[in-house]
Amino acid sequence: MFVHNLRLGAKSLRRNPVLTALMIMSIGIGVAASMITYAVFRAVSGNPIPQKSSVLFVPQIDNWGPTYNRAGEPPPALNYTDAMALMKAKKAERQTVFFPISASVISTTTERLPFKVRGYATFGDFFPMFEVPFLYGSGWSHESDDAHEAVAVISKELNKKLFDGANSVGKDIQLDDGTYRIVGVTDTYDPKPRFFDMFNSDGYTDPAQVYVPFHHMMDLKVDTWGNNTCGGGPNRGNDYQSWLRGECVWLAAWVELPTKADEDAYRSWLRGYAEEQQRSGRFGWAPNVRLRNVVDWLDYRHAVPPESRIALTIAVSFLIICLVNTVGLLLAKFMRRAPEIGVRRALGASRAEIYKQFLAEAGMVGLSGGVLGLILTGAGMFGTGLVFGKEIAKLAQLDFSLVLLTLVVAVLSTLIAAFYPTWRAAQVQPAWQLKSN
Amino acid sequence: MLQIKPILAALKRHKAGTILIAVQIALTLAIVCNALFIIQQRVDRLSRPTGMDERNLIAIENRWVSKKEEDTSSLSRTDLAALRSMPGVQDAIMINSFPLRGGGWSTGIRLVPDEKVKSKAQTTLYFTDDHAIATMGVKLIAGRNFLPSEITSVSPREVKTTPQVIVTKALADKLFPDGSALGKQVYMNDSTNPPATIIGIVERTQVPWSGLWANDFVENAMFLPVQLTGDYAIYLIRAKPGQQMNVFKDAPATLIKTDRLRVFSSERGVRTFEQVRANSYSTDRGMAILMGVICFVLLGITAAGIVGLTSFWVGQRRKQIGVRRALGATKNDILSYFLTENLMISVAGVVIGAALAIGLNLWMVTQFEMARLSMIYVICGVIALLLLGQAAVLAPAMRASRVSPVEATRSV
């Protein structure tokens, strides 16, 4: 019987072709608009490290004071003094600070021109903390950090460029004037948004190709290739040493705190540290610290671009209008057949059967709308780069779950829209219709 | 127009359809008003002038490979000499950033050397030389240009302030509203640094950022007679009229011939200013296009919905129409009946819709830091939707007016 209803439904699509086409278009366009914007929204609002997002934290210390900080919030990164205090204290299970670097790679094996790579100067804890996957080798040890060793971890892409993808662990790489021993090659590692480096980027730029030890880079007096933000107070520093002692922030810091107790202990340590700075006269204000986990941090740093949320809001309203439209059109389509319903009812069809038939018909309309929506969504994916930029558009993809969701949303929303017209159809009185005929 | 009473009576019998059309018109109005408003805001932004001679400019972002910082100032001088002597080039400069580039320096400016006093204005800093005004094509409206002897070469880390600065008119007016900026002293960065004297005022220059956050200081710019050292060098080249594409093609080769140990970054290496502008405002332009498409499609769908439902009504009422025609109603009476009916539903719809539009905007103001919706958009939207409704109902109404009086005698 259900199949029969579907067949009737498919057949009735061909009746009133204009009304049917209008409905299918309306549903298709509405669904496509909301699916495209949803795909983008999903891509930018996902949790980039779900398995660890509750144990990774960003410590913030207000070293600018109430005159220069932004609305009472501590700066989003640390200065050298505070970062080194944090690294020395070792109060967390794991801890790292880092800054972006940019270096020329001089190929020793091929006759290639030097080229630039971007990466991070960081500590060995970086790799296990952020679960960086390795193709060969591993990150470096605490000993390498402490000994200011010239070691490096390179990305799969850089390894392919320099060594044709062969295991390069133990080989050397030439960065600017220095030689670094490769200890590891990462597999593709590109979490989006790049939650750990929201201080230097919007989280959607190209991934790092090289990682080198922090202390070694400081020995070379390498500048940050990222942001260097000063509150506006004095103590900016005019040469390298006074800049290090100054209060400009340029180091992103992260700690890993596995339990709630660790988190509380760390928070009070941060507070205590700020109190100490106040007592020693460096801070002329009460301790003002923050400890945000990954999710809170992304929210605080506005990882989801406003364009994406505005577009999603508008697109969902758009879908609602398309559904209101569908309700009206279905009502017209169904009520046009009042005489036919009357005959069926008079011949003994129950209300339930009328429901079944008309809902099946609506389902067919919804499915056709869904298929059209799918085609439009696929086409629209090419246009996402226009609105949201190339980096974000790359992330929004028409995968299996989105295909399924498109069809389900199309059919379900059409069925919901069909409910009132179907109810009206089922109310048709057999006697009245027969009489007027 | 005297048909209002019977129309109301008839509409009561078609409550569902009436409400659906009204709701659809209301929602469409709410979305279209806000979408139009977003379009206008974005278009306003992306057509802002930078103050430069955009049509003839080329920007090159160059990075030295394996060079010592102390050598870079002579390297860039050689580059500039080579660029300036190219045929088709009017002038060229090295600068730390330029309008719409996206990254640069910004700082607060104080009028007194006191850390406790809040800065008077936010500004961007452009470190360049005495060729900047000629290269960028900005207009000096007061004071003088830098002298070649005033240009110094400093590491980015050590740059403090300079004895002379040139400011934009917008910044001058912000700092000295009485118009007396020329010759005055200002403090930047750390106020323990010595003050700088404003020696010139240019008409207009935009900051490097196009983000909404930079809106309130978009034309506050300050030029300092400094050439920064370091491995990054940005060149702005002004081609002679009509020569832009030739210079665009030849300039990279000229630089590589001077010294080949350099890279031009793949995305921002060598660009005409048109590319810089398009890149900078791509999100704004995209958002405007998206909202435009949404408006267009939405109006289409609403019109289609009205056509669909009205056709259905006309079909349902053929007999009644026939009776009216038989009783002496003219074609025009029937036509105006349906037009009036639609107008009444539409008016109800736009009244609710106007309230919804304002509500949606207020919600977006709190969520996305958007501006308040101007009433002009609501009024335009209302007029547009009323016209759209009348246009959509016209075809079914014409069909209704052609129903012949004979229909009255038919049984269906």
TrEMBL record, chain A:
Reply yes or no: does the keyword Transmembrane helix apply.
yes
Where does it localize?
Answer: Cell membrane
- Which part of the chain is the MacB-like periplasmic core domain? 20-220
UniProt keyword terms in alphabetical order: Cell membrane, Membrane, Transmembrane, Transmembrane helix
Alphabetically, the GO molecular function entries are:
transmembrane transporter activity
Instruction: Report the superkingdom from the record.
Output: Bacteria
User: What GO cellular component term, any one, is given?
Assistant: plasma membrane
- ABC3 transporter permease C-terminal domain mapped to chain residues: 313-430
The yes or no answer to whether the keyword Hydrolase is present is no
Main localization of the protein described in the UniProt heading: membrane
Q: Where are the transmembrane segments?
A: 21-41, 310-332, 365-388, 400-420
InterPro entries (alphabetical): ABC3_permease_C, MacB_PCD, Macrolide_Exporter_MacB
Bilayer topology: Multi-pass membrane protein
Q: What protein does this entry describe?
A: FtsX-like permease family protein
TrEMBL record, chain B:
Q: Which Pfam families match?
A: FtsX, MacB_PCD
Taken from the UniProt entry, a GO cellular component term is:
plasma membrane
* Residue ranges of domain ABC3 transporter permease C-terminal in the record: 293-405
Q: Where in the cell is it found?
A: Cell membrane
Q: Tell me yes or no: is Membrane among this UniProt entry's keywords.
A: yes
- What's its membrane topology? Multi-pass membrane protein
Q: Which UniProt keywords apply?
A: Cell membrane, Membrane, Transmembrane, Transmembrane helix
InterPro entries with a match to the protein in the record: ABC3_permease_C (IPR003838), MacB_PCD (IPR025857), Macrolide_Exporter_MacB (IPR050250)
Q: Does the keyword Disulfide bond apply?
A: no
Q: What residue stretches are annotated with the MacB-like periplasmic core domain?
A: 55-249
User: MF terms per GO, please?
Assistant: transmembrane transporter activity
Record field: transmembrane: 20-39, 287-314, 335-363, 375-395
Major localization listed first in the record, in broad terms? membrane
**Similarity remark:** Belongs to the ABC-4 integral membrane protein family.
Q: What is this protein called?
A: FtsX-like permease family protein
What organism does the UniProt record list as the source? Dyella soli
